[in-house]
Specification:
single chain, mainly alpha, Diphtheria Toxin Repressor, domain 2, 10 helices, elongated
Length: about 180
């Protein structure tokens, strides 16, 4: 007996909704493994701050420890498999923030850069900065500002300017994400 056309269409739609092609599944697994590779590249401290499931966290640390290529490949496949059961959107957002790709992260870094420029140009800016960040080491900050100004006038590499940037960024708190 033949099915009525509308019954056949309903069955085809259900099949299309529940069926994911092998290529799509493979692409999704590759994407999870790639995300796992990015996670393995992070420091232990950054990994700890990502609030990952304990098992995934432990396996990422294990992957960092491995040196044999075959073992690393198998471990990365296993991490990809573990990530199937994890909500990956928050992890991807945190990775993007760490890599500086999120708009909020870029905005924060630009704000820090503007503060550094103001501090190097104007002594009054230090008072303004310190009013919003009372826990910052004032003496260290003044020293970095003095050194950065001297390096700029003498044409030396901006070592102190970079250190000042790091101090300002760290005082701002964690990046978005």
């Amino acid at each position: 007996m033949r099915q009525a056309p509308e019954e056949h269409d309903d069955h085809a739609e259900e099949f299309a909704d529940s069926h994911i092609s092998k290529t799509r599944r493979k692409n999704e697994m590759t994407a999870l493994q790639d995300m796992g590779v990015e996670l393995v590249k992070l420091s232990r401290e950054r990994l700890a701050k990502m609030n990952l499931p304990e098992r995934l966290y432990q396996e990422l640390l294990e992957a960092q420890r491995l040196t044999a290529n075959g073992a690393i490949r198998r471990q990365m496949q296993f991490i990809g498999k573990l990530m199937r059961d994890v909500e990956v959107e928050p992890i991807a957002a945190k990775l993007a923030a760490i890599k500086g790709e999120s708009a909020a992260s870029k905005s924060e870094l630009h704000a820090v850069e503007r503060w550094r420029e103001r501090l190097l140009q104007d002594d009054a800016a230090l008072t303004e900065w310190l009013s919003g960040h009372p826990d910052v080491d004032v003496q260290a900050m003044r020293q970095l500002i003095r050194n950065a100004r001297r390096e700029a006038t003498e044409g030396k590499p901006p070592k102190s300017s970079r250190e000042l940037f790091r101090l300002l960024r760290d005082a701002q708190g964690p990046l978005a994400g």
